[in-house]
Write a structure and sequence with these properties.
By secondary structure, this protein is mostly helical. Helix content is about 80%, strand content about 0%.
Length: about 375
């Protein structure tokens, strides 16, 4: 295998320090983060080979789990096995998790103050503009010109918008449909082994546990097992559970949680820490974050030794194509739901449209800059019209 034990030019400490830094200043979302990893670790420092990076990226795209976090775990595994995967993954996520805890504390302590309400009033609208463009890019990249995939995308977008929650069975069914259409299965050992882990993690969605912390742990474990490719894919799942089913947060708190994820570096999925904090304090935040990233970690360290043998299996690729199209459709439906709920006046509509237009026209414009501008606008608007 490509990650055989050979002398390397860096230590595990070096890699941990790199991912601590990336988790602290790495803005731009999953696509930007994986780009930074390639530039820094493959091109500049030459710690990771091109082949190892490509294998890790392919696994991260095929298996459930937030893309950037999963790739970081894989790169930690390449030369340092399970210890490397564990410590690198923690180093990458920890900075943004600590930031989220701080924001969560301030939100709870000072959330009633006009200035904080003003910031989230406008930042929430900006977030909708950002994820609208992100959804468009995800859609065109994931579906291409495949009519079957676009059909799945439309069905899931409409279903999510109407029901205001994502349906995991529709998403899994989409994967099976494309699998059956494009690569009729032979049900050999390779196919059964490759599909067993995702199915085992995702199927038992109806189980429940008593106690809020158990509910948090189980719900966010399912959320982590559901995410394909981008942290944005978790938004419809979280909305359906956090707001609709369990009612841990109201509509405004949820859009604020997404906004917090956008204004902090690191993986977008870290919004689960903010949600957990609002739901059950520090313990809730810790449980939510650990539960969300556990499936991502397990998929990576358990699949890595076998991915080189099974990763290019056409059946697996077809299944993932269908699931990805469905997941992106669910994201699009969630964006519509959030827009309907939160773009309630001319100011929020203008902020959302202006944000989307700016991202569309200025290719290298960083999201934190737009978030900061939106925050200032929100304060000004509230001061003028108070």
């Amino acid at each position: 295998m490509s990650y055989r034990m050979i002398p390397v030019k860096y230590t595990l400490k070096d890699l941990i320090l790199y991912f601590l830094k990336l988790g602290t200043i790495g803005f731009g979302g999953p696509v930007a983060l994986v780009g930074y990893m390639h530039r820094d670790l493959v091109e500049d420092r030459k710690w990771i080979t091109e082949d190892d990076y490509k294998e890790g990226l392919a696994l991260s795209q095929l298996a459930p789990g937030p893309l950037a976090a999963q790739l970081s775990i894989y790169l930690g595994y390449v030369h340092f096995r399970f210890l490397g995967a564990t410590l690198v993954g923690l180093a990458f996520v920890l900075p943004s998790f600590l930031m989220v805890l701080g924001i969560g504390w301030a939100y709870v302590a000072y959330g009633g103050l006009p200035w904080m309400q003003a910031i989230f009033y406008s930042v929430g609208a900006a977030v909708i503009g950002i994820i609208t463009i992100s959804t468009y890019k995800l859609s065109t990249k994931s579906m291409g010109k495949d009519k079957w995939l676009w059909g799945i995308f439309i069905v899931l977008a409409v279903a999510t918008f109407i029901t205001e929650e994502e349906n995991i069975w529709l998403i899994l069914s989409a994967g099976v449909l494309i699998w059956l259409l494009k690569v009729p299965p032979k049900f050999g050992k390779a196919e059964m082994k490759a599909f067993s882990l995702p199915i085992l993690l995702q199927v038992p969605t109806s189980l429940s546990f008593s106690g809020k912390l158990w509910q948090i742990a189980w719900f966010f474990t399912k959320a982590g097992a559901f995410v394909f490719g981008s942290g944005l894919a978790i938004v419809p799942f979280l909305y359906g559970g956090v707001v609709k089913e369990y009612q841990w947060l109201n509509e405004q708190q949820f859009i604020d949680a997404v906004a917090v994820a956008m204004i902090t570096p690191g993986p977008v999925v870290i919004t689960v820490g903010f949600i957990g904090y609002l739901t059950a304090g520090f313990t809730g935040a810790t449980v939510a974050a650990l539960a969300t990233f556990l499936p991502c970690y397990l998929f990576t360290v358990l699949s890595a030794p076998y991915f080189k043998k099974y990763g290019k299996n056409p059946s697996i690729k077809a299944f993932i194509d269908g699931v990805t199209a469905a997941a992106v459709g669910a994201i699009a439906g969630a964006v519509l739901v959030l827009a309907k709920r939160n773009l309630t006046d001319l100011s929020t509509i203008l902020i959302a449209v202006s944000t989307a237009f700016a991202i569309w026209k200025v290719k290298k414009l960083q999201e934190p800059i737009l978030i900061a501008i939106a925050a200032i606008l929100g304060i000004c608007i509230k001061m003028i019209f108070k």
